[in-house]
Amino acid sequence: MAKIINVGVLTSGGDAPGMNAAIRAVTRMAIYHGLKVYGIRHGYHGMIHDQIREIKSHHVSNIIQRGGTILKTARSDEFRTVEGRAKAYENLKRNNIDALVVIGGDGSLTGARLLSEEHDIPCVGVPGTIDNDLYGTDYTIGYDTAINTAMEAVDKIRDTASAHNRLFFVEVMGRDAGFIALRTGIASGAEAILIPERETPSDKLKIFLEEGFKRKKTSGIIIVAEGEKEGGAYEIANKVAEDFKEYDVKVTVLGHIQRGGSPSAYDRVTASQLGAAAIDALLDDQKSVMVGIVNKKIVHVPFNKTIKSRKPINEDLLELAEILSI
Predict the structure, then answer these.
(1) Same domain? 208 vs 291
(2) Structural domain count of the chain
(3) What is the C-alpha to C-alpha distance for residues 158 and 284, in angstroms, rounded to an integer?
(4) Is residue 316 part of a domain?
């Protein structure tokens, strides 16, 4: 592999708290090793339209505590095409970029894999998504902040639920993964947690409300992952409300509040470790891999494996949630 001199870095897909900490770590680790760093604004869209500028150490000062991403992010349909990726690669060559660090989720890493395969440019991925659904890493950047944001919101909702004897269905993000819902539910003492990985038919939920919840409690919280197979929080709440007129059923969708805010200490440290590890991986002649953290150790996971494999939910936590809800 040719010697790496210039490294490009971008953030892609949904934003996640801690992305700025990762950009900072990539930049300063690269400079430490004598490399130049080029920031690509607006993800793959910016790569296609040559929104590429050199980043120096002072450009990443005072960003570690900021949410969002200073490089901006976007989704690009054009980059999904062979022609779009070829145009993007021409802009990388024009800027003398030898290697790429991509911070994002599975869609972003899929794009990096295709670019690397088609144009033989080393690409290393950094897992940045609040969903925590990437196979091969225990945690993704933004996940810890998102569950803390959700937990704090649910704590406030519980106060009003108790005051009015209400049953709240709270929908959290996660796409088709229940990681945010599961940890938020346990942390906030939810009465039930509905996630895509474990089917909970509405009739089973009704039995729970009839035989258990109704007998012991007058208010409560049910956490619903947005990808739950029975539908979102509104759909499930409507099914319950039809059969339980005695409940004052309310729905809260937390939505994009979970993406924002200053990253937690854990996300800042994790992002810093992973950003630095991405540069180490490139200097070690790695390509088409994601850097992850497993059992507190840095690991390299091939793009094919992390993209095609489904990350399993923690069965022990599921069992714990059911026990603690009695």
Answers:
(1) no
(2) 2
(3) 50
(4) no
Domain for residue 322, yes or no?
A: no
Tokens of 127: 């897992």
Q: Which of 131, 133, 144, 267 is catalytic?
A: 131
E strand segments, 59-177: 99-104, 123-127, 166-172
Last residue of a domain, one of 230, 259, 288: 259
3-state SS assignment for residue 181: helix
Rg (CA), the chain: 22
User: In angstroms, rounded to a whole number, what is the distance separating the alpha carbons of residues 200 and 216?
Assistant: 21
Only one residue has tokens 């996940």, namely: 143
Angle at 52 between CA 46 and CA 57, to 5 degrees: 130
Summarised one tens digit per residue, pLDDT across range 261-304 is: 999 999 999 999 999 999 999 999 999 999 999 999 999 999 99
CB 141 within 8 A of CB 22: yes
Same domain, 178 and 298: no
Composition of the chain by helix, strand, coil, percent to 5:
45, 20, 35
User: Are 125 and 267 contained in the same domain?
Assistant: yes
| pTM for this model (two decimals) | 0.93
- Nearest C-alpha neighbor of 273 from the set 116, 168, 137, 95: 137
The reply to whether 26 and 112 lie within a common domain is: yes
Is residue 1 very low, low, confident or very high in pLDDT (cuts 50, 70, 90)? low
Asked whether the beta carbons of 112 and 99 are under 8 A apart, the reply is no
- Residue ranges making up the domain that contains 228: 143-259
Per-residue pLDDT tens digits for 96-146: 999 999 999 999 999 999 999 999 999 999 999 999 999 999 999 999 999
284 is catalytic: no
37/99 same-domain check: yes
Kindly report the length of the chain: 326
156 within domain boundaries: yes
- For residue range 203-259, list pLDDT tens digits in order: 667 777 776 565 566 678 999 999 777 678 888 888 877 777 777 889 999 999 999
